[in-house]
Amino acid sequence: MNQKYADRSKYIPWIFIPTLLAIVIQTAISIFGLELYIVKALGEAKGGNYTDFYVGVIKEFTQGDASAAMMLGYAVITAILGAWIFLTQFRNHKFSSLRGKSNNVLFTVVGLIIFVIGMQYVTLYLLNSLASAFPSWLEEYNQLMETAGIDSEMTVLMTLYTVVLGPICEEILFRGITFSAAKKVMPVYFAILVQAIMFGAFHMNKLQGAYALVIGLGLGYIMYLYDNLFITIIAHMMYNLLGTIGSEYMPMQESGSLIVFFVATLASLIAVYLSVIIMRKASAIVNNDRFFDDI
Of 100, 113, 159, 196, whose CB neighbour count within 10 A is largest? Predict the structure, then answer.
């Protein structure tokens, strides 16, 4: 290991702790919430077959507002705990300010918008390609989305989690703690890759993990450019908003032509690449060579 990173091995566990912490909290809250829901349902039960009762309770819990409420609870608890870890271990008890992070705010905003739209199509085409190659992955993905209540009939609570609290929680964990820890012990581009891999693995679904890894690479690079969680949180929120509420308004290419598919995919990749160039040009941190001052 490079001597620059040799005395920073204490940060290695923090690369993995956020993922494990999130899984443990999510599992614990889900189990506790389900137990409460079963107790409530037992109190209201009026006889019938136990197996049918139990299956019905599980279905109502996983597809209703109860499950969404559990996810909101998980996100709030994890975000608060993650923010505390991030601030105490990596930020000297204060969040990084937006001041001085961009040389051109307009370029940063335009770059973010292009990035979000382009990444939406990149991940869509990636998902379609993987689904065509591995149909079983698509079945697992659709089942996951249906069970989680993330579909065309999303509840208000699930929308709140998907668009607001989920991105806040995940950005604190992965672009905050994991990325900050990784860049303490390895070159920054490896750190970007590592946090993206952890972000993809956290989703524990092949298709979702694949496009989460790609999104994680982009968000990790934005964090590298601006060193500010607020920017990555906004980008993540915009991406999720466009992918849920705004997806019906996005022009989609439904042609079965491989040439059209290839051109559309290439155009999306070019758009994302251009957005990265724009945001890099606007980054005060990178252009002023101040990135390594505080690591």
Answer: 196
